[in-house]
Amino acid sequence: MSLMFFITFLTSTAQIFWKFGSEKLSFDLLALITNWQIIAGILIYAVAGTLMIISFRGGDVSVLYPIVATSYIWVSILSIYFLNEAMNIFKWLGVFIIFSGIALIGYGSRESKILEGAG
Amino acid sequence: MEAENQKYWKVRDKMTTQTWAILLVVIATLVGAFGPILLKKASARKLSKISSLIKNYYLFGGVALYALGTLLFIPALKGGDLSILYPFVSLSYIWVSLLSVKFLGEKMNKYKWVGILLIILGVTFIGFGS
User: Fold this and answer.
1) What ranges in B15-85 are assigned the alpha helix state H?
2) Does B66 sit within 8 Å of A102, measured CB to CB?
């Protein structure tokens, strides 16, 4: 379970790298393959995905979905600190409503196993 | 301090989230949502034998579509704030739920429907906040 939180934190961190990397995105192939933020984001995301499949195959989505959905909270917090983005009451409300929506979908799918998860 | 402020506002200015970016994220989630559907189909087949694994087109298709969805998301980030665009990724839960009914014969129930409505409501709030 705590590993799951860690994995979710990894995927959230990958978003921050991608955001930085996207700022210098262009159609130049050399620039693309040397865009270390994009590469780092993909590597982190791949590690997180592999960890998730290995450690939680057969886990119940009613537990998994709410944990994965905390990524919306982490990304909001990381966006404030690393990207100087501003949150407001609408955005925070939106994040928590989305979180409850995903948790409910997980509860409604509780007989389902992790492989069908939306990641 | 003044210069710092000016620089900050310049960044904020540039970062007004663009409609194309939101649309691209929505498209990315639609493409990516087919990934788990195909992976679920893949998991119904034998995964233990290498020979059947490399002939498992659902597996490769699923991974490819999931990856494509993720890769489409990255350029979209150029067009706006991460704290606006990332929550739109939650739309994928809606697509996966609906596609599971169509392609995997799964059933909807009231929890899933309310969940879908909440995600739509949440994303609307994010839109208001942008």
Assistant:
1) 19-43, 50-54, 57-76, 82-85
2) no
